[in-house]
């Protein structure tokens, strides 16, 4: 009976894995990889539940509870940083549960998966930080070569240099520092661990937010502006945002014959010859978008103003008090833009335009720093508690342990 069930699950999974790409090719949004991952997850969960039933236990309700908590929070409000933490808590609980299940069942499939995971974690522990350093230095060289030597483009290089200094000092600190100083030096790794956890949660929800799939019933699409080349020309980064909006515009028009209005949002900077919104409109007109489907917001200076002023245009242009809107920006900026939409009381989620891979590490670091600044009071309190606790341990070590 057990082998029969496993065979049935395997056949059902293979049939679904074969059908999904063909099914998605007929859709306007062909994101078949997401559905392949979802299908694998569903089949794997069914298999795990079957193993639990065989053991006459129901521990799978524990990770299921944490998954439901995450899903409830996420679909209630996608634009919340805590969603990243909730998902990671679910992952930790889920991995712990699967580890216990491996020991209880010695199931071959779970043992193989646990072995692969264990090897990955071991390699990450042994060489992960050094591999990260190599990657950061390589990425810094590529970014500086292609994007210029601005401070914003130096973030991966500065992080790599900082981690290198930390590793070198950590290696020699045990021989040159007394015990109490070593305890005090623990402030730095503790703060690094805290901000790594915050960054990981941010990266998690930013990645999940990329899977946002708005329906083809939108009334407006807000395109967030950025700087212009020579103060007048749409750069590739901004062009990708507009192209993403046009792609959705054409898809909705094809599906419903009711295309949304495009709101080109961006004011005129001090070094620009015209407002970004005007340049963006010209770009969209060249792409064949009718002028009557384009609205221009030309007063904003930052993303929050993009959202606020676009909301005013929507409320003036909308025929009813209820409207449906989304926004487009580059994928690395997507989640923070969602936070600004929330701050502006604009009920809109985003869709992200692709960005060159080499640009993403530096861009995500920049976004993370901006997120930390947005919540600086919270982080200062946590950092203050960490510093105070370690200073207290240092004083204890110096006055009590050191005298023994």
Automatic annotation (TrEMBL):
Keywords: Membrane, Transmembrane, Transmembrane helix. Residues 219-368 form the DUF218 domain. The keyword Cytoplasm does not apply. This is DUF218 domain-containing protein. The chain crosses the membrane at residues 6-23, 35-51, 57-75, 82-103, 109-138, 150-173, 179-203, 380-401. GO terms for cellular component: plasma membrane. GO terms for biological process: Gram-negative-bacterium-type cell wall biogenesis; peptidoglycan metabolic process. InterPro entries: Cell_Envelope_Assoc (IPR051599), DUF218 (IPR003848), Rossmann-like_a/b/a_fold (IPR014729). It comes from Enterococcus termitis. CDD domains: YdcF-like. The keyword Transmembrane applies. Pfam families: DUF218.
């Amino acid at each position: 009976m057990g082998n029969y069930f496993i065979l049935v699950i395997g056949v059902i999974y293979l049939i679904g894995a074969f059908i999904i790409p063909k099914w998605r090719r007929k859709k306007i949004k062909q994101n078949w990889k997401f559905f392949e991952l979802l299908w694998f997850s569903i089949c794997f969960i069914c298999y795990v539940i079957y193993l639990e039933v065989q053991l006459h236990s129901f521990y799978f309700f524990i990770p299921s509870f944490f998954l439901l908590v995450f899903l409830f929070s996420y679909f209630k409000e996608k634009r919340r940083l805590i969603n990243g933490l909730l998902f990671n808590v679910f992952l930790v609980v889920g991995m712990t549960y699967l580890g216990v299940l491996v020991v209880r069942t010695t199931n071959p499939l779970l043992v193989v998966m646990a072995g692969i995971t264990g090897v990955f974690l071991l390699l990450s522990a042994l060489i992960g930080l050094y591999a990260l350093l190599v990657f950061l230095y390589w990425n810094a060289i590529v970014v500086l070569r292609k994007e210029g030597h601005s401070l914003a483009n130096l973030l991966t290089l500065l992080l790599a240099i900082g981690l290198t200094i930390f590793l070198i000092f950590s290696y020699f600190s045990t021989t040159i520092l007394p015990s109490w100083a070593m305890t005090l030096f623990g402030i730095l790794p503790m703060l690094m661990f805290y901000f790594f956890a915050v960054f990981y949660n941010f990266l998690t929800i930013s990645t999940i937010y990329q899977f946002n799939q708005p329906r083809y019933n939108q009334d407006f699409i807000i395109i967030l502006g950025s700087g212009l080349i020579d103060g007048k020309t749409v750069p590739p980064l901004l062009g990708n945002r507009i192209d993403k909006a046009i792609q959705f515009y054409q898809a909705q028009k094809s599906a419903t014959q009711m295309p949304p209005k495009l709101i080109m949002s961006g004011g005129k900077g001090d070094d620009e010859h015209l407002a970004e919104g005007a340049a963006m409109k010209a770009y969209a007109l060249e792409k064949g978008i009718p002028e009557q489907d384009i609205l221009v917001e030309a007063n904003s200076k930052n993303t929050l103003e993009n959202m606020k002023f676009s909301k005013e245009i929507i409320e003036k242009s909308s025929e009813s008090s209820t409207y449906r809107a989304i926004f487009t920006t580059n994928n690395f900026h997507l989640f923070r833009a969602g936070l600004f939409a929330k701050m502006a009381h604009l009920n809109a989620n985003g869709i992200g335009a692709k960005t060159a891979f080499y640009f993403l590490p530096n861009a995500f670091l920049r976004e993370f720093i901006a997120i930390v600044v947005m919540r600086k009071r919270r982080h200062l309190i946590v950092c203050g508690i960490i510093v105070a606790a370690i200073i207290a341990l240092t004083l204890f070590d110096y006055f009590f342990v050191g005298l023994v």
